[in-house]
Amino acid sequence: MFKEDQLDKVAAKKESWTAKLEATKKKRPERQSQFATDSGVDINTVYTPLDLAEMDYERDLGLPGEYPYTRGVQPNLYRGRLWTMRQYAGFGSAEETNQRFRYLLEQGQTGLSCAFDLPTQIGYDSDHPLAQGEIGKVGVAIDSLADMETLFDQIPLGKVSTSMTINAPAGVLLAMYIACAEKQGFTKAQINGTIQNDVIKEYICRGTYILPPEPSMRLISNIFEYCSKEIPQWNTISISGYHIREAGATAAQEIAFTLADGIAYVDAAIKAGLDVDTFGPRLSFFFNAHLNFLEEAAKFRAARRVWAKVMKERFGAKNPRSWTLRFHTQTAGVSLTAQQPMVNIMRTAFEALSAVLGGTQSLHTNSYDEALALPCDESVMIALRTQQVIGYEIGVCDLVDPLGGSYYIESLTNSLEEKAWDYIGKIDALGGAAKAIEYMQKEIHNSAYQYQLAIDNKKKTVIGVNSFIMKDEEKPKGLLKVDLSVGERQTAKLARVKAERDSAKVESLLTAIREAAQSDANLIPFFVDAVKEYVTLGEICGVLRDVFGEYKQQIVF
Amino acid sequence: MSEKRIRVLVAKPGLDGHDRGAKVIAQALRDAGMEVVYTGLRQTPEQIVSAAVQEDVNVVGMSILSGAHGTLFPEVIRLLNEKGASDILVVGGGIIPEEDVPALKEAGIAEVFGPGTPLEEVVKYIQANVKN
């Protein structure tokens, strides 16, 4: 990017400047003996063209909307349309969550994001013994299409896009969404949204797996194939680094482990006979926005560049849309403190800003009370307003990639990319992500432990926790409590649904699913037929458990 | 005479998959010289109690972030008592609202450690309160 004689001049200047710096340090010793990012990238005092001497603008950056997409996936990005403001919500019954959804839409939110309770995520109906105590706790309970109909009551599914955080039973919930939209009078081609559908990271760190890897990968490929033909606007997977980061990974590990999972899904789909360019454009990603502001902004840029190279060079994708890494971001839940919770508003705002400077396609901002409880209406509103301030008031959306060209940001983007390739190489050597689960778990755990030690020994400052502690802090008021009767109401509703169905039809639909599972048919059309007759999530997943067995976690500790 | 090492079962009851905290605590207890067994995810109260008895532990530490603590923690205590293992020190942690803590303590959970607790505090608490 720079001419050699320019660089020589800078180098000569830098030499005399370094002598001055050393003299200054003697008078003004530095706060730390060493400065480094969370990923362990050493940070120099200042960055100059010398740090980018090897950089080639065309090859490494390009323009927004052009390979390798370092500067963004859209030529005009937020000058065209701001990111989708999408707050993750769901608790209690479908009625309560429907009210929260409508509240958020009224406040100016532009897309929905649905949280399901743990029994739903693990494929158990609310009347299952393991659902005891968990119904409606971390998300909404969905047993059958009847719940889905209530969930989206008066919300036109052909006009709003919905992201569903559902993984192991993603195909079944997608089937319910389709059935619900059709009942509202929309066609499959009109619906738009995302299912998370990323099971490998469930094995690694999130825990809501059901089946072993092989049948799970088959279901994922089934979804890719079905959607490419039937619902072209649907994002078939959201390959997630968010939870990997929450579990303790560094920024570099987050990029690497997420993209390694992505590589595994592409490999599986190609093996299942799909062409990379039929499903490649519908892959989407989900990242964390953590506290280390500049490293986070650089992380998103590095991830885009690595994925573009993976799709073009490794998989030979020809459609430029297959090369682009489009992503949702959520601010770091793990950075929220239970102490002085209002301070979380500031943390979240900076994290959100890093995601916007990194070019995110959609964003969830956490609410200040989430280290204490599910968020209340007021805290959710402030979280949404934070996005609106960034989008409408502070001017950062008036150009694309405003940090591009910063000596430090470009150098850090390069360092993160290098670290990511290094990890991807290690995972490849282990046989790919599905075979490297324990390796990734160990790496994540080690990083998590180091992070906690750094807080405990005050190498890392956490306001309210190890520094600037307030004695006699006032307790936050108005925390949301999930109504305890939700479990009883939900099981009663399920019993009613089961009593009103045609049970012979249910049996034959479940038999059809069993036979399809035992063959190599695409399972999704069978799910769609079944859910329309109010066959439940637990019944369908029960058949799959029966045919394929369940995943047994390897305890790495 | 050498002191007997404290044996701890770190357990994840319920369906919640967040085990970052459980594993970090487990590592800290191990680094403090305790013998630690980690159950892995999705343990029922029955499984936790049977592991505690089988491993002959002095302490059970449970972590829940899903909100199911009110149902699952007391059930573990009830089953431990039923098995005659009420001498085991039982502690808990996770996202547990402060207003829920008195009921948990009344049920027999000795202490509840919330977000932001330094590792050393947990280690010291166990060392001071374990019954040998």
SSE layout:
The complex is a heterodimer of chains A (557) and B (132).
Chain A: H1 4-27, H2 57-61, H3 77-80, E1 84-85, E2 88-89, H4 94-106, E3 112-115, H5 118-121, H6 145-151, E4 162-165, H7 170-183, E5 193-195, H8 200-206, H9 213-230, E6 237-240, H10 242-246, H11 251-271, H12 276-279, E7 283-289, H13 293-314, H14 320-323, E8 327-331, H15 343-357, E9 362-364, H16 377-392, H17 407-429, H18 437-456, H19 486-500, H20 503-518, H21 524-532, H22 537-548
Parallel strand pairs in A: 1-9, 2-3, 3-4, 4-5, 6-7, 7-8, 8-9
Chain B: E1 7-11, H1 20-31, E2 35-38, H2 45-54, E3 59-64, H3 69-82, E4 89-94, H4 101-107, E5 111-113, H5 119-129
Parallel strand pairs in B: 1-2, 1-3, 3-4, 4-5
Helix pairs in contact in B: 1-5, 2-3
CATH architectural arrangement of chain A: Alpha-Beta Barrel
Q: How many domains make up the coordinates of chain B?
A: 1
- Beta-strand portion of chain A reads 5-15%
Order of strands across the widest beta sheet of chain A? Answer: 1-9-8-7-6
Compute the number of strand runs of chain B: 5
What CATH architecture label of chain B applies? 3-Layer(aba) Sandwich
Helix count of chain B?
A: 5
Spans of chain B of 5+ residues with little confidence (pLDDT < 50)? Answer: none
CATH C-level class of chain B: Alpha Beta
Helix/strand-derived category of chain B reads: alpha/beta
Biggest chain pair interface: A-B, 45 and 33 residues
Class of chain A in CATH? Answer: Alpha Beta
Order of helices and strands of chain B: EHEHEHEHEH
Envelope shape of chain A: globular
Percent of residues in helices of chain B: 40-55%
